[in-house]
Each structure stands twice: as structure tokens, then as C-alpha cells.
Amino acid sequence: MSPSLTEPELLARALRHLTPVLDLLTDLGARFQDAGHELALVGGPVRDAFLGRTSPDLDFTTSATPEQIEAALAGWAEQTWDIGREFGTIGARRQGTTVEVTTYRADAYDPDSRKPVVAFGDNLEDDLVRRDFTVNAMALRLPELVFADPHHGLGDLAQGVLTTPHTAEVSFSDDPLRMMRAARFTAQLGLTVDDDVRGAMTDMAGRLSIVSAERVRDELSRLLLGADPRAGLELMVDTGLADVVLPELPALQLEIDEHHRHKDVYQHSLTVLEQAIALEDEPGTEGVDAVVGPDLVLRLVALLHDIGKPATRRFEKGGGVSFHHHEIVGAKLARSRLRALRYDKETIKAVTRLIELHLRFHGYGGGEWTDSAVRRYVTDAGPLLGHLHRLTRSDSTTRNRRKAERLARTYDDLEARIARLRSQEELSAVRPELNGNEIAEVLGISPGPVLGRAYKHLLGIRLDQGPIGQEAAAEELRRWWAEQPEAGSSGTEQERQL
């Protein structure tokens, strides 16, 4: 946003950006005005209009109570919901557009409570001063389209500065999650916090511990999905927020000894994150290994892939440093942290599996892997292969150009081999060439542990040798069975063992 434009010029540009919903805004404003209530578009949609961004939802503030809001929306909205009624919010949808209308607020946090103490206000000015940042304390009065900016949020937005309408201490005391929001807006909008905001975040970081894990998780995810998550994460670490939310991140700031025997793992991880983001596919990209950005799993694993290093660091004789099994330790730490932040099971499973696998490629060397090893690499990654490709490539942060080029060429070779094998056989879901029923029939056994062992043996054959055909698979199965102790058991004895 150009600070050289005057406020009327900036407002005219914002209104042009709102053109697709302008009729809806004025129509809704007129309905509330006719009912004797004030209504204003507020917060993110106003800020985003000045930035040339489109908000997915429209947020309004009003002098009407929740009951009066419902009455004003009746006959206008195609659907309404009141899940936020206790906070004064009624949601509605019309012609594919979602709106939320909230009664003027004057809320504050109990110092020991995770939920706000709601107090409804009676004017727009008091509502705006209670908002998190000045850039979100701008409003557009409806239906007249009169701009309200009592806290000079437009000037702050033009300068790219994040400040608070009230003192930062009061703002963050009202809702400690606003400190996370400051980091998120740094990542998402490219804003820089002013000295007062930074100081309050540093002094009050511990207050974040009273906020529910779910709310913290949502802000962290939004930060990671922003355009520049590194900036937001660095702000979290510098102010101490990360010590509360994600302590494994600042723990990566390992002391660099005088011999510089290892990289700064913290800076390395942030660089890997940036490089992984650069490898995300554009929206609309299709393909079995496509990872369309912004992708939360890829960004989480890029950030957390080395969090096992502090616990596994060992100084070796001769001046070396080792981090043996840091991928296993890191996966456990990531699982614990993501569970504490209430991430869903699928996200946790994907992130931890990728951490476990992130060193696998380094065994590839100069391309000496057998086809069997390549099949196992693909099979172990499963549907996460595209993520593993990008994580592995982004994990190279060496400044040695020749080494970096050699690693890239080696991984190019691995991907080419995967493509060749895929053209010859189905790698996306490698299974034995005999299913469970067929194995049981060949061996004359019932379902149970022995059948499971037989299935696992045939799967190993499939991975090692590729497709060999059902007859050869059955013959291999009989050969294996002849070496098993159960093969000599009578039917009754065998059933008892199963």
C-alpha cells in the first residue's frame, strides 16, 4: 500500500476493491438503519480492502443486541446461526457470502480465565478501542460508507507498523492471544511490531499460558501458512512466546563452539522452512506427488525436522559433532508437542512419519540403492512421498555450491528411478501378489499370526524382486512354509497354535 496516496484516495481504492459486495453492504446497512440500529463493516475486511486483499467473510459491528440482529437479518439471510450468541455474534449467509454481526463490545479477560468476560457496549468508538491492533480498529459506517479511524490505523497500515489502540499492556491483558496474533500478522501481512508492542510481548509472554491450546494452535497454523512465516517465528522466539508455545524451536539455538563444528540448527531450520515453501506447487497443480501450497504438514515438518538434535548432540573425538538417532527422538518430541497443541491425528501422524524418514535419502550415496531399496523408500513414504521429496531437497542448506549441486543431482537420479519403476509396476500401494485368502488356501491354514507372517514374507519378496507373478509367489510361499515349525503340525495342533 502506497503511503504517498491521500486518505480519500486510499478510501476510494478500498471501495473499488469492495465493489463485488458493495450492494450487499449498503443493503444490509439500510436494513439495520431502518430498524433504528447502527451498523459498520469492521476489522479484517476493512484492512484487507486497503491492502487489495479479499477477506473470505465480512465482519460487522452494531448497536443492536443479538435478538435485534436476528430480527434485522430475518427475511434477508438465507441461513443464520447463533453459535456465538454469548459473545454477541450472529452469523448469516446470503448468496454464498458469509457475514458475522456482533454487538458493540467492551470485553476484558479475567487474569486467570481462558474465556473473555463479555460486556456489550453502546457506541462504535468504545468498540474500536477494545480491538487488538489499530489496523483492525478501522470501520466503514453503513449504509453511508463513512470511514471511521479514530486510532489512525490507516497511517499505521501505510507505514507497515503494528500498534495497539489502547496501551499494548492493556490490549494483551484483555486477550493474551493477541500476542500470537501480532506474530501472525508479521508473517501474514508483512507488518513490523513497534517497540511498545514488542516490549509488552516480551514482558507478558507468560500470560499466553492461560489461553486454550486450540486457540494457540489455530494462530500458529495461520502464521505458518502466511507469506513469510520466518518473520513471525523469529518474533515469537525473540519475545519469548515460543518458550510457551513451541519451546523446541528456541532450544535449537545450540551454542556454537569456537571451532564452529556444527551449523546453527535454529537458523538452519528456518532456512529449510523457506526452501520448502519455495518448492510448494501452485494451486491447481495435479499429480501423484504434488504438494499444493500453502501446505501445513510440509511447513510443520520443515520447521520441526531437527528438534531431536539438542537431546542427541555429542562431541566426538577429533572435533566432530554427532546427532545419532535425532530423527527418532525428534519424531517423539514432535508427536508430544503437536498433541499438546491439539493438532488432529492425521497431521500428527504425517509430520512425525516425515521426521522419521527425513534422513533416509542420505543412505542413497551415489545411487547405489537397489530397486528393492527404492521400492521400500516409496512404500515407507506412502502418500507422503511428495512431501518427503520437498523436505529432503530443502534440507540442503550448505554454502558449498558443488556439494549442493551434487546432492541435487543425486536426488534427481532417485526421482528418475522412482519414475521408471512406476512405469513398470504399481508402487503407490505395493502388496503381495497373493491376498490373505489366497495365502490361506495355498498353505491350508486359518486366519491368525501365522497368516500374518506369511503375508509379511510375501510383501518382502514383492519389494525385493518386484512383480514375479502369482504362480512364482505361491511357489515361494510353499518354500518358506516348508521351513516353518508349524508346517509339521497336525491340523488340530496347528489350529491350537493359531
TrEMBL record:
Q: Report TM segments.
A: none
Organism phylogeny: Bacteria, Bacillati, Actinomycetota, Actinomycetes, Micrococcales
Task: Name the species this protein comes from.
Answer: Ornithinimicrobium cryptoxanthini
What EC designation does it have?
A: 2.7.7.72
Q: What is this protein called?
A: CCA tRNA nucleotidyltransferase
Record SMART domains: HDc (SM00471)
InterPro entries assigned: Bact_CCA-adding_enz_type3_sf, HD/PDEase_dom, HD_domain, HDIG_dom, NT_sf, PolA_pol_head_dom, PolyA_RNA-bd, tRNA_adenylyltransferase
Domain HD/PDEase: residue ranges: 261-426
Cofactor(s) this protein requires: Mg(2+)
One GO MF term: CCA tRNA nucleotidyltransferase activity
List the Pfam families hit by this protein, alphabetically.
HD (PF01966), PolyA_pol (PF01743), PolyA_pol_RNAbd (PF12627)
